[in-house]
Design brief:
It is a single chain. The chain has 5 helices and 8 strands; from the N terminus they run βββαβαβαββαβα. By secondary structure, it is of the alpha/beta class. The protein has an 8-stranded mixed sheet with strand order 1-2-4-3-5-6-7-8, with helices on both faces. The chain is globular.
Length: 219
């Protein structure tokens, strides 16, 4: 798990990077929760998602948004963080020009940033959005959503009510050409306290299912 520093739009960004042994393996970019509420790349769910992809042969990067940890800059309410994510993906791709596709996984605020990034990057073929904050941010840019993916939410989430996530899922499921899987964890709160293992099992099973169809990773 090499520590890396790479250039972002507002200075250097700090990350953790694990290249795949396969030159053609897809890339996974992992995006952390809200910086103003303690979100970092070392969040437990971000950490576990990172290794979930590593175990499946992906080239994986997680990093701190601007102003977090050793990343330079200051919080920019989403616009700058989206630019950070784009710069992070660019950085990985320079070392893996033969990579076949990309996945984005984000938790809460990171899910919102990730969904915006996939709208701008046609190479993204899959996503995982954990507790997408559909009541706090505008997701109307997903018109249409260009890739299939998984949305996971807890039914005891007091930060993002179930009805808001369900409305987003229903809107995306109505679109043609993509498939949105939706999993609700009974009793799970916004941070999936005591349910991280269940969350990661769901995410891992979803990626395995997609990889079986896509046939992208050389293990």
């Amino acid at each position: 798990m090499p520590e890396v520093i790479f250039n972002g739009p507002e200075g250097r960004l700090e990350g953790r990077y694990q290249p795949s042994k396969s030159k053609t393996a897809p890339i996974a970019l992992i995006l952390h929760p809200h910086p103003r509420f303690g979100g970092t790349m070392n969040n437990q769910i971000i950490y576990e998602l990172y290794y979930m992809y590593v175990k499946r042969g992906f080239t994986v990067l997680r990093f701190n948004f601007r102003g977090v940890g050793r990343s330079q800059g200051t919080f920019d309410h989403g616009a700058g963080e989206l630019s950070d994510a784009a710069a992070a993906l660019d950085w990985v791709q320079t070392f893996h020009p033969d990579s076949r596709g990309c996945w984005i996984a984000g938790f809460s605020f990171g899910a919102w940033i990730g969904m915006q990034l996939l709208m701008r990057r046609p190479e993204v073929e899959g996503f995982i959005s954990v507790a997408p904050p559909a009541n706090l941010y505008d997701f109307s840019f997903l018109a249409p959503c260009p890739a299939s993916g998984l949305m996971v939410h807890g039914d005891a989430d007091k930060v993002v009510p179930m009805k808001d996530v369900q409305a987003l899922v229903d809107k995306l499921k109505a679109q043609k050409g993509i498939t949105i899987d939706h999993e609700t964890l009974p009793g799970a709160n916004h941070f999936f306290a005591d349910q991280t293992d269940t969350l990661l099992e769901l995410c891992g099973n979803y990626v395995d299912k997609r990889l079986e169809v896509l046939g992208k990773v050389e293990m």
